[in-house]
């Protein structure tokens, strides 16, 4: 009887070990990834997932699912993800990392944030895996992207503004619809914004989605937040420094080598950008 009991216990322990191994493997594929604060300026606090007190943020700090970022007046920070996508968080903002994980096959990436209030600027790397996702939710809409740069701002009443700097994003919301049977159901409405387009959506604002051409606009600089203008300025400066000097010398063109300052120039398109900024 004693030997039989020991054998049962041994079998049970082996099964427990195997289940643990399977669970560990599953978690390795679908577990959250850590993001990191790559830079910050001003008063920034983090409320860790499950924590009760806020802690002071610092450069290099790891962030995971459930963490909430809270910035003070004139403060900002940049969060870097594993795939080199980034999220620049502006002042007086509260944003929570809702999901930060890999897809079930371990090849895709899922990043989801909840913007309660404030403003952010997302720079998203192109998502090659079809199951990959990057989205920012607010009290009124869900903004989803597949490789782009965009700005989002949520006011205290939930009104959300989205502006696309590069690429394309979807803006979706769920609104109540009265069915033929008299029952009310939720229906998802979705619009798309291209580069340079902006839209503002208030709570339960169905007009934006039923008649989007009346609400999607192309703003000028006076209508853009300084947060966006700074990013445009920085992007222009970076692109000019990296690509602005253009060499049109042909193969074995000795003039380019002997008189480089006369043959290297800034492209006309970049000159126009500089003119508009000055």
Q: How many E-type strands?
A: 18
The Rg value, from CA coordinates, equals: 25 Å
Q: Could you name the ranges where pLDDT drops below 50 across 5 or more consecutive residues?
A: 21-32, 246-252, 263-278
Q: Within the CATH hierarchy, at the fold level, what is the topology of the largest domain?
A: Jelly Rolls
What portion of residues is helical?
A: 25-40%
Using the 3D structure, state the CATH architecture of the largest domain. Sandwich
N- and C-termini, Cα separation: 91 Å
What does this structure look like?
The longest helix has 29 residues, at 2-30. The protein is 25% helix and 37% strand. It is built from 6 helices and 18 strands. It has a 16-stranded mixed beta sheet that branches. Strands 17-18 form a two-stranded antiparallel ribbon. The N and C termini lie far apart (91 Å).
């Amino acid at each position: 009887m004693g030997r039989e009991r020991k054998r049962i216990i041994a079998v049970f322990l082996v099964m427990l070990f195997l289940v643990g191994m399977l669970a560990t493997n599953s978690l390795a594929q679908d577990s959250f990834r850590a993001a990191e604060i790559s830079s910050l300026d001003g008063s920034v606090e983090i409320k860790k997932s499950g924590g009760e007190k806020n802690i002071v943020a610092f450069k290099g700090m790891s962030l995971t699912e459930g963490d909430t970022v809270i910035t003070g007046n004139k403060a900002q920070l940049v969060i870097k993800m594993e795939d080199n996508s980034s999220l620049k968080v502006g002042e007086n903002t509260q944003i929570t990392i809702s999901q930060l994980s890999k897809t079930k096959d371990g090849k895709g990436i899922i990043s989801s944030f909840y913007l309660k209030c404030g403003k952010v600027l997302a720079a998203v790397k192109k998502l090659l895996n079809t199951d990959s996702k990057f989205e920012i939710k607010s009290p009124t809409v869900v903004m989803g992207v597949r490789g782009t740069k965009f700005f989002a701002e949520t006011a205290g009443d939930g009104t959300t503004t989205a502006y696309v700097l590069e690429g394309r994003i979807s803006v979706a919301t769920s609104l109540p619809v009265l069915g033929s049977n008299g029952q009310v159901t939720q229906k998802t409405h979705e619009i798309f914004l291209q580069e340079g387009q902006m839209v503002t959506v208030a709570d339960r604002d169905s007009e934006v989605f039923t008649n989007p051409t009346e609400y999607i606009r192309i703003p000028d600089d006076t209508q853009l937040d300084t947060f966006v203008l700074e990013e445009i300025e920085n992007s222009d400066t970076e692109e000019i420094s990296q690509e602005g000097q253009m060499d049109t010398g042909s193969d074995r063109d000795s003039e380019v080598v002997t008189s480089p300052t006369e043959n290297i120039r800034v492209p006309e398109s970049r000159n126009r950008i500089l003119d508009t900024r000055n």
